[in-house]
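User: tokens in, sequence out, please.
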């Protein structure tokens, strides 16, 4: 089949869970004989650009700049509509003529691509809450958990604005926010099947009114071959216990909770923070100021070195403050035999507390510190948790399941066409 995967940004310039997963899925589908094109916007190109990335094709689409004559309103508009990207998408459809369009994300791309796909089968993976939450993570400015679209959306948008906005503008902000949510809801009617990586995210969208019969729960697959290929240059765990964090050094990820909890650890304990330090420089400076002896800032790693990074630690800590929809890094750690200590929130609760890892209340420094001290003083605990880790879903197996869903959809369309 001819398959188009649509994503909001892509490797190698952007390395995140959705981008890495999209690449892994594209490669797995290609290995199974499908013709795969990944479509994504790139503000650095002025015209359509096609290239081969590993075994699949990539289509870079020009994107209108976020700012323009409309200023902040134009920036907000570009988060869910981008006419230049839409025109490129039409050209891609005409040239590639995919039978299946599987959308991974359209934030800052254009949600209208769903409607522009025409009579083709459209799948959409719910990687986060963006289709009901403009900033995607269901948290307020203070990172407390939000329950979904409400009258508070306007205040949240005002507080998060890159430019100071007076409280008096809140009613004016509410109108475009309401329009955005209504427009996206309309565009979602063009989706044939939604893929939820966890029951948690499925249940959340159903609670917001989405038809449960249109949602298939299918955990994201991990590229085990990529993950387990051995590189060089990253050291093995040191004597004592080595804890690690792998991901965005962002406030919503709760890294400060981990840094504070690590204080007063035994001298042989180590903490490695592995992630990009440039996205939130002020936050990283604060983390460095709070960090004590034994904490190392290791910088980011490319997607093909994640396995090596996980080999360098004994236990992964995922201290998120927001309700994760899946968290690929948990499966990646499990695939490498590394147990996980995580916040008791969202899809992270799939970790079985006291069996294959540990859970603690989000933001609870005292509780996390107690768990870290327990693991540092009883090294056999990590080995015990590692022996009970669940089987990790392989991206090749997931690609086969998706391929069957794609084929079923294409066949149904052909049957309707003959009727």
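Assistant: Sequence out:
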């Amino acid at each position: 089949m001819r398959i188009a995967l649509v994503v909001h940004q892509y490797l190698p310039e952007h390395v995140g869970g959705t981008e890495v997963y999209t690449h892994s899925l594209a490669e797995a589908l290609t290995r199974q004989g499908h013709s795969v094109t990944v479509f994504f916007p790139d503000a650095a190109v002025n015209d359509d650009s096609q290239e081969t990335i590993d075994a699949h094709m990539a289509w870079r689409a020009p994107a209108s700049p976020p700012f323009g004559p409309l200023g902040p309103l134009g920036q907000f508009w570009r988060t869910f509509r981008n006419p230049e990207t839409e025109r490129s998408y039409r050209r891609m459809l005409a040239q590639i003529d995919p039978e299946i369009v599987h959308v991974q994300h359209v934030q800052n791309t254009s949600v209208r691509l769903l409607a522009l796909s025409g009579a083709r089968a459209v799948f959409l993976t719910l990687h986060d809450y963006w289709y009901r939450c403009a900033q995607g993570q269901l948290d307020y400015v203070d990172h407390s958990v939000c329950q979904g679209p409400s009258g508070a959306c306007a205040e949240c948008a005002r507080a998060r604005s890159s430019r100071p906005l007076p409280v008096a503008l809140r009613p004016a902000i509410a109108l475009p926010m309401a329009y955005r949510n209504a427009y996206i809801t309309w565009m979602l009617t063009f989706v044939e099947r939604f893929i939820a990586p966890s029951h948690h995210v499925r249940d959340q969208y159903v609670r917001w009114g989405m038809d449960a019969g249109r949602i298939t729960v299918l955990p994201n697959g991990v590229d085990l071959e990529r993950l387990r290929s051995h590189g060089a240059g990253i050291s093995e765990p040191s004597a004592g216990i080595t804890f690690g964090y792998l991901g965005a050094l962002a406030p919503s990820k709760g890294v400060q909770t981990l840094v504070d909890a690590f204080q007063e650890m035994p001298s042989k304990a180590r903490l490695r923070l592995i992630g990009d330090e440039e996205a939130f420089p002020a936050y990283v400076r604060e983390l460095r100021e709070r960090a004590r002896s034994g904490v190392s800032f290791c910088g980011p790693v490319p997607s093909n070195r994640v396995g090596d990074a996980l080999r360098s630690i004994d236990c992964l800590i995922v201290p998120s403050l927001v309700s994760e929809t899946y968290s690929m890094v948990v499966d990646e750690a499990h695939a490498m035999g590394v147990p996980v200590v995580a916040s008791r929130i969202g899809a992270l609760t799939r970790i079985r507390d006291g069996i294959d890892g540990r859970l603690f209340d989000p933001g609870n420094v005292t509780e996390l510190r107690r768990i870290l001290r327990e693991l540092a003083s009883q090294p056999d605990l990590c080995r015990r948790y590692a022996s009970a880790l669940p089987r990790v879903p392989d991206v090749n197996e997931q690609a086969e399941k998706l391929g069957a869903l794609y084929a079923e959809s294409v066949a149904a369309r052909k049957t309707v066409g003959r009727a």
